[in-house]
Write a structure and sequence with these properties.
Blueprint (H helix, E strand, L loop, with lengths): L14 H23 L6 E8 L10 H21 L3 E8 L5 H7 L10 H11 L11 E4 L13
Parallel strand pairs: 1-2, 2-3
Helix pairs in contact: 1-2
Length: 154
Amino acid sequence: IGQFPPPGFFKDTPISQYSNQFKLNFLSALNITQPLLSRLTPGASLIYMTSFLAFEPIQGMGAYSASKAALVAWIKTLARETRPHVRVNVVSTTKLDSPEARSRFGDKATERLISPEDVAHVIVLLTTPKTRSISGAVIPVYGNFTLEDPSSMR
């Protein structure tokens, strides 16, 4: 669940876009999670997705970055509230490899896109008993991505 809005500086961004981003990227997770909590059995694992922009915001992406940062803060709180019975973690990614991404960014950025399979492996690992002590963590899956030249990913 989520949406990546068109970039825009704060002074030019309607407050309604901030509200929309919080509804899509933050409140949707709360609305889905709250009714599930009473149904989870001990040892259950909740895994959410966020973006590196929650930690490394860039100009023009304030609404999106703030909504993803709010999600991370809430997940860390939820992890403390549900310990030790339920594990709650978040996987943070950059750009995922997809036909749309390849079309948008071209061949020069392909090696910097994250494989959906790599993300899936991390998610599966977080559901196993091997990670029973991990809760409230942000797991980065960034591959070869760096912020040094964000224009190469536009």
